[in-house]
Amino acid sequence: MHKTMNIQTYGCQMNDYESDRTYRLFHDQFGYVWNDDPMTSDFVLFNTCSIREKADQKAMSTIGSLLKAKQEKPDMVIAVGGCMAQMKGKEIQKRFPYVDIVFGTHQWTQLPTLVINAQKNKQNALEIDLASWKNYKFLPFDKTKEPYAVRENVTIQNGCNHFCTYCLVPFTRGREVSRPAKDIVQEIQILADRGVKEVNLLGQNVNAYGSDRTGEIRFAKLLEQVAAVDGIERVRFVTSHPAVFDFEMIDVIADTKELCNDIHLPIQSGSDRILDLMEREYHIATYRRLHDYMRKKIPDLSLRTDIIVGFPGETEEDFQQTLDAMQEFDFDQSYSFIYSPRPNTKAAKWTEQFLPKEVCGERLIRLQALQQEIHNTHSRNYIQKHVEVLVDGTSKKQGEGWLSGKTESHRTVNFAGSMDTMGTLQTVTITEAFPNSLRGQLAQAHVH
Ligand code: 5AD
Ligand code: SF4
C-alpha cells in the first residue's frame, strides 16, 4: 500500500508552487500518492500564509481540526511550514503539541529528512532558521510523471528587500535571492516538453531579478530567454514593484510575442502622502510615467494592481486620490485589501492613527464598486471582437461541451468546443460579457 499525503495551501502563488513541487518530490523519493482528505492521510502538510491576520486564523483552525485524526492514527505525520510557521513557530508547537514538524520558509529542501526523523524518533522538530538566507535553496526539478496543467507557476526569486511599513514578507521570507537563470530556463524547458504552454514567473519583486547574483542576467533578459523556450506560448510574471520597473522591461514585453499584454503592478495607494508613510519608494508621478509609456508601447494592455485601504492615517482625501488613480490608470482588475496590522512591522505601531473598521469597510466597498464599473466597461468593449484564447479547462458551470480558457489579457472566456483543442490557442469571437467572465464562439467559421 502506498502512503498518502495531503497539502493544505494558503496564500500566494509562491506557496502553490512550493506545495506542488514538494508533492512531486515526496512522490518521487518515497512513493507518496495524493489523498484529497487530510483526515485519512499518512502525511499532512500545511503551507501557511501570514500576509493578513485572517490568513493566520484560517490555518490555525484547520490545524486544530486534525487533533482527532492524529489521536486515532498516531503514525500520521503533521508538518506546518511557510510564512506563518516562520513567524509563530513556537506558538504553533505550544498550541498544537501533536504537530510533528514546524519549519520555516527556508527549510523546504530539508523537509524529506525532517519527515523521516519524525517517523523514526517520534520527536517534535522546530526548524525556522532565516539567518542563513544567502544559502536559500530552491526546490529541485520534478522527476515524476505526474501531469501538469496548461499553465504552471515557476518561482524565479524569493524574498524582498523593500520593507514597506505594512508588510511582513521581508520578515517571513527574508531578503531577495534570485534563482540561477540556467535553472529557470531548464525547468521551463522540462515543463514545455511535458505540454505546458504558459508559465507564470513568480517572486516578491521580480523586476530586481538577478541583482543579488554576480554575473547573473537581469529581468528583461530573463524574460527574453524564457519567451524563447520551445513550446512556451505565453509568459506572465508577478509581482512587480513600480520603483524597480523600467522602460527596458516594457520594451521587451512590447516586442516579444510570448510576453503577455498583461501587467500586474501594485500601486497600493493613490496618495503620495500615504505612499511615503508606506515607504513604497515612489510617488504617483513615477507610476504615471511607467503607465503612460506602457499604454504607448503595448496596445490593449491589461493593467492589474493591488490596493490597500484604511492604511493608518488615511484621510478621505487620500482615499479619494486612490479612486482618482483607479480612474486615471484604468485598471482592468485590482486586488484590494483592508489594512491589517502585522507584528514587527513599522505601521503596526501607529495605533493612534488606525481607522475604525466601518470606515475601512465602507472605503473597500466604494473602491471595489468603481473597479467593477471599469471592468464592466472593458468587458463590453470585448463584444464582437476576436480574441486568442489558450484553452485550459472545461466550464462546469456552463455544462457539457463547454471549454474555458484565458485571453492574453488574463480574461476568462467560456465557449462551446471540442476537448481536442485543450492546450491550444483558439480564436474566439466574444458574444456576451458577465461580471467575471466573457462568453464567445469559435471563430473558425471565418477561415473556411
Ligand atoms: N494589510 C493589508 N494588505 C496587505 N498586503 C500586504 N501586506 C498587507 C497588510 N498588512 C497586500 C498588498 C500586497 C498584497 C499581496 O497584499 O497590497 O501587494
Ligand atoms: Fe511586501 Fe513591499 Fe516587499 Fe511587496 S515590496 S513584498 S509589499 S515589503
Walkthrough of the structure:
The chain is an alpha/beta fold. The chain folds into 3 domains: 128 residues, Rossmann fold; 246 residues, pyruvate-formate lyase- activating enzyme (Alpha-Beta Horseshoe), CATH 3.80.30.20; 59 residues, OB fold (Dihydrolipoamide Acetyltransferase, E2P) (Beta Barrel), CATH 2.40.50. Helix content is 35%, strand content 21%. The protein has 13 helices and 19 strands. A 6-stranded parallel β-sheet has the order 2-1-3-4-5-6, sandwiched between helices. The protein has a 5-stranded mixed barrel with strand order 15-16-17-19-18. The longest helix has 26 residues. The chain is globular. The structure holds 5'-deoxyadenosine and iron/sulfur cluster (SF4).
Structural key phrases:
Rossmann fold; binds iron/sulfur cluster; 448 residues; five-stranded mixed beta barrel; OB fold (Dihydrolipoamide Acetyltransferase, E2P); 35% helix
How would you sum up the global shape?
globular
| Bound small molecules, deduplicated | 5'-deoxyadenosine, iron/sulfur cluster
* Number of strand elements: 19
Number of helices: 13
Query: Per CATH, which architecture of the largest domain?
Result: Alpha-Beta Horseshoe
Cross-sheet strand order for the largest sheet: 2-1-3-4-5-6
Distance separating the two termini = 54 Å
